Protein 1
Amino acid sequence: MVTSSIPMGYEILKTVLLYTDPNLRFKIAQRIPEVRITENAVPLRINSLSLQEFKTAVNSTSYKLGVYRHYHTEDTPISIKKQNREGGVSYDLDQYGFEVPNSSTPILNGDVSTRTENAAIIRRDTEIRERHLLSSLRFFEQVLAKKFNQLESVGKTVEEFLAVPRNNESHWFYVRSSKEDLQMKINAYRTNLLPFHYRRNKMSPPYAYFIQLAITQGNATTYQRYEYNHKLYEAAKKLNETLFGNRPVIIVNQLENMYKCDIWRIPVGFKISANSVFTPFGGSKSTNSVTANSIYVDWRTVNPISSILDPSRTLRNVSVPHVEANYQHSFVKNAQQLSICTYKNKINQLVRAFETMGNQRIHIDLMDFQTPSANEYVQLMQGWLATERRVGSMITLGLRTDQIGRKILELVRTRNERTVSRDRCVIVPLINGRKLIVSYSPLPEKINLSTFLLTAKIIDGENSRKVD
């Protein structure tokens, strides 16, 4: 008996797409044009999104663009083979094979730039660079000759050569390298000199250019190559328009790795609306919006990121490295939690910065490899408490050991009067009837260098009886 299949209903299709991996949805939209409009209309849910100029990572899958050089013969230089395997070079190449500086590329409509106004344009086709490459080539050729010609001719081993006083430190250092490593360096310098040879003799390089898209998921990478008839930055723009264009809602849990001196080639109207991961922010179909829970940023990218944020939404967490910065920036100031990575020598600076941090929750990780002292942790808590905080405010700090946690609580007890002690907890009376609860507990798993979490929270005196 033959039964005909029943087409999937529109509402069912939308539900299925909503819970489908975003990378699979990209494939569906490209391969099945009939469902593309529906697929674009359904909120796209992404756990982590990373944007770089020529690389976009969605969850565990990355899409990297580069220029691939295909030699007409089998004699491809090892350095270029390696670059091709890694996705190609991340810059355009001219007719002789010279790098076209990315700092000279135009900013297209919709792009977001972290490039500084006076960004240096570093050219790779100058006479100065050619002389440097020639000098370096001759140096390594001399090192190779010294190691394998002069030493062998006098019957000395490398160990014997290294044992005597040396006049040329650089030669001595590189003589320890293997013959293969030295030869690889020599070959790489020779390859880098070839564009000068092609230009001088008005020759075309012995290879063809392609734009290559490397799609990596786990340890598997697939490659797609296209005719090199447009610039790499234009291809990056097209890639992100294909992935994210014409989508009214994109839900992102973590937006991360926004690099300085970079340009994000994103679609026109691409906006980030901070919200709960499961509560998409609607908008007109002509505007892209992203719902993000957490953003991990370098301070130098704060202003560019803010240009694609919807200020009416509140981020759950903003995580930053601590340098001198404006903690009053709207999306930083309004984040439910501000997470800061810092070092021991920055503690005094961070304590002063607490005066401008009004976030309800602040988390600190001290990233020194040596364990910070209990006194340094208490100094951070006292600096945080020196600014008036409302009930419910808390600061958390990552701890390395149970021992440092015990020492912190002991310092809190000795420096305050009328404290109440419980297991891994000290309650400190504050003014206006409020109390500070300082406690620590083990983390489910190691985070950064921390295995315990110290918490200091301001509560109403009335609620202190409820604390276990």
Note: The CA atoms of residues 69 and 81 lie 9 Å apart.
Protein 2
Amino acid sequence: MKFVLEVDMDRGVVGEETVRELERILRYWGGNLRHYGLKPGDTSVIYDSGYSEVGRWHITDSGEAPPE
């Protein structure tokens, strides 16, 4: 399996304060993962501190294409 986290650093607050916002995103989503089964197909949208959608994470089988 693969855990893939993608953040568009040109969107939302991330583009304004990249390092601080990435730190916050990683802390928040790292702590929130316990609420998911972490099996292939699990996914969630990632929001910045201004509640703008800036990416997503997903779990795939190693050879599986990411969800659209």
Note: The first strand starts at residue 2 and ends at 7.
Protein 3
Amino acid sequence: MVYYSILMGHESLKTILLHTDPNLRFKIAQRVPKIRLTEKAVPLRIEYLSLDEFRTTVNSQSYTLGVYRHFPTEDIPIRMKNSNDRGGVSWDLDRYGFEIPNSTTPVLNGDVSFRTENAIIIRRDTERVEQHLQVSLRVYENALAKLNQLESEGKTVEEFLAGPMTVDDRRIRLYVHSPKEYLQLRINEFRNDLLPFHYRRNNLSPPFICYIQLTITQGDVRTIQRYLYNQKLYEAAKKFNEILFGNRPVIIVNQLNNMGSWDVWRIPVGLKISAVSISANSGYGDAREIIPISSILDSSKSLRNLSFSDISDPVLSFQHSFVREAEKLSVLSLKQRINMLVNALEKMENQKFHIDLMNHQNPSATYYFQLLQGWMSTERSVDSMLTLGLRTDYVGEEILELVRARNERTESTDRCVTVLRSDATSLQVSYAPLPEEINFSTFLLTARIIKA
């Protein structure tokens, strides 16, 4: 089948590749070297793309890299077995088995970094960590020993807690209610966590061999490939994404998903993405996590939809051109940001706005009306729209009453008020129940500019 496809005309092959699933294109290009240059030259169209430091998801298929620890025997510590079952750990290991924090790895040319200047580096190979592990180990060992002692003496835990206790007894009083199996599990975990300190102190090698594992997942089907651990995990991620996306024209993506993590995207130098929509798994990505993406966006195309939270940095949220030029801008905010949001609405010309509030906030109708006024303070074209997520039917009715009271020429129907304007347009404000709860909102208020 592949043989005959190579004999096709060049233009026919390009047409077929253009309409082929991206994951199948990756596979064909790797197996048939003769068409790699042609495959790279054909625009890549992706419905859904999600990037993380060690995971890339293209449509319904994900590619995950991890460090897999292979033991020559089946006696594998349970925590390591669990991480192996998940595809390996998402960080590098040093020669003694210590975790190398990802926050200490270099940002390479072409990478997109979401790190902050004040990022905390957590090291697990310090003397303080070792002392903490040793103390914790002793507490669990003493708790298990006490349970065994009580069992041999025919006493209950309640009798032990009711009687006079030594200093050591008081240290374990919160742990003796735990099942013995759980205590033994924690003891084993602490002992395993202490092993790298033992290996380093005696210059020993751990009893396992590390591999870089690539796990390809589609639905319930997983394919595993393992490679020698002769490069860092972040270097492997960089090379893998270069295989997928390197030396291509602008990649066309319908939905670019930001995972909402504080890591680094290890992507090829010069990668450009023409995205239709950008959001996070929850629907809203932190502005600090979305702004760095602008460096790889195709500047010749405007976003159709952009969703982000302005909670961390409200000023940064609205100052970038790709935010201001998005056709529809959806924002998750706090009611304390009312003045900032109103100011932003006054200055920005996006065709459509949507605003949601954090779930623990229940603002009054006045809050929403201020947003509506801010949006209306600048000239809006026909079909411009502002939507607001509401918690209750009562707030929606109060907003409509404010619209009626603040405007002279209005027309009302059920859950709708139309304000007649002097420029041959009208402002139509209405609200309706949502088919299902979305971001803790049960009603949606819509303000739209329509022809009079």
Note: The chain is about 35% helix and 25% strand.
Protein 4
Amino acid sequence: MKALVYHGPGHKEWESVPDPAILAPTDAIVRIDTTTICGTDLHILQGDCPEVKEGTVLGHEGVGTVVEVGAAVGNVRAGDRVIVSCISSCAVCSYCRKGMPSHCLGMGGIGWVLGHLIDGTQAEYVRTPFADTSLYKVPDALTDEQAVMVSDIFPTGFEIGVRYGDISPGDVVAVVGVGPVGLAAVATAKLYGPSKVIAVGRSRPRIDHALRMGADVGVSTNDPDWADVVMAQTDGLGVDVVIEAVGVPRTLQDCVRIVRPGGHIANAGVHGRPVELPMESMWINNLTLTTGLVDGTSSPMLIDLMVAGRLQPEQMVTHRFALEEMVKAYEVFADAPTWDALKVAIHREA
């Protein structure tokens, strides 16, 4: 089969690799029908995830068709259309039972293995561990482009941004960074009844996209006084909750500038280096800072909301490619400002 293979920082190739095979009775083999690229894949290519070995097939998001299952798999069978979760869960270890499959002991203490510690979804086929509890059947009402957003982006924006941010009705919420994770946070923050959602970013097209997905106000960081603009939206008090969805030190530091005493900072960005924070002022302002790796436990609920029309994740798809155009898709996604790209949908067939 063909797959996108990592060959060290800055190097990748669409090339022939062996077909995946069942290695455990709980495995399934899924034919990838639609996949996409995540910001985390770019972090890997930048060398921010040294545990990813050369020769690994990248990708942890996908929708496909089950073609083979192991002897112990009972919930899915060949022919089922499924969402491949970015988190593989054994469902029985202590962390999975706590609702934290992100640290599944069945996978060695980390649930994110696809495209990280084992071969991933940017391929014609993928082996999925713990298929019964790591694959979700796709309702007929959802398209592949809707369903693939449940693999990672929407659960991440919701769980690590909105839920960890502890949004309450009436809160003023700022989302700093309006790429795919930030947009997912914007859309799902509205489920909790905030009085105002402020989208903060550099790209005007992305800010406009955030407004279409539910933000009430858009603020560009190209304005040197952008933080004052945000504060003016809160009577000078600061926001109740700020979600960081970029993953660089400056943006997390900026979040501290705009949150009010007693507020929450929810870090959903993937950071590849240390961040210096002003703890001398954060502690006395009673700030809560949360961060984490997505668990994917919200996926069934998000699927239901999509079927009901409450969420329209397909709005984030700006570019479409065939699988054999994977390298071109990376070029577009990695240079998003030039192409006005958000999420790229990569389909088995053009």
Note: Residues 29 and 127 are 5 Å apart (CA to CA).
